[in-house]
Amino acid sequence: MLTASLFAQAIGTTSRGSAGRTRGDATASSEELAAILACERISGKPYRALLDNEWTSFGHEQEPMAKIEYLERTGIATDDAGLILTDDRKFGYSTDGEAEDRHGLGLVEVKSLASARRIAEFLCAPDKREWAMGQFKPQCKGGLWLTNRAWLDLIVWIPSMESVNKHFWSWRIWRDDDELEQMEEQLWRFMRRVDGLEAIFRAPPLQDELISLGLPPAIRHGAPTEQPELVAAQAATTTELPLSLF
């Protein structure tokens, strides 16, 4: 399952050619994520738990305070909600809060900044809204897509800046069905890459690979020299597996 917090990584493409890539190719980060999802499908284990860190815990801890500040500033209360999944369970979104105002049903997404580097990037940005959209809009659009809500209020929360009144920033993102349709196409393109990798990972070893594995002749005997399903899977994806995964 791909959650909305990873949509930006999944659909990321290169803006210019470099390191054997041409403009518009999937980024190395996107390719790595595709491999991680393929590994998860096969192992049945949450491979991405390795990606969790102290900043994730910090965000969970700070979320209630950010929503209290949001209520005080806007008068809009938020309700907790669980994980929302597509019927095929391929995509999911966990909102930080459901809300409602005169414009209809909406969502709240809180992004807590803790690292000095991220705080500096944001506060020094000439256009803070543009910075926030560049970092978080794909996830927000994913929430609007999966929940069918009309709007989402994105909150950038920096508790360490409260003494200078720069701890709370918020912008509203309106639903744009054309944007969501384009994003959905990009996500399905990514999922096809995951499918291709999964097929390669699951395919039986070739004859020379069996020899490399050191299997006894009795097991190697009669192993196929070519496998149409593997060839087809390899043709379906041009993903180059990052060595860091292994």
Automatic annotation (TrEMBL):
Gene3D superfamilies in the cross-refs: 3.90.320.10
Pfam family for this entry, one: YqaJ
Residues making up the signal peptide according to the UniProt record: none
Residues annotated as domain YqaJ viral recombinase: 2-149
Domain of life assignment: Bacteria
Protein name: YqaJ viral recombinase family protein
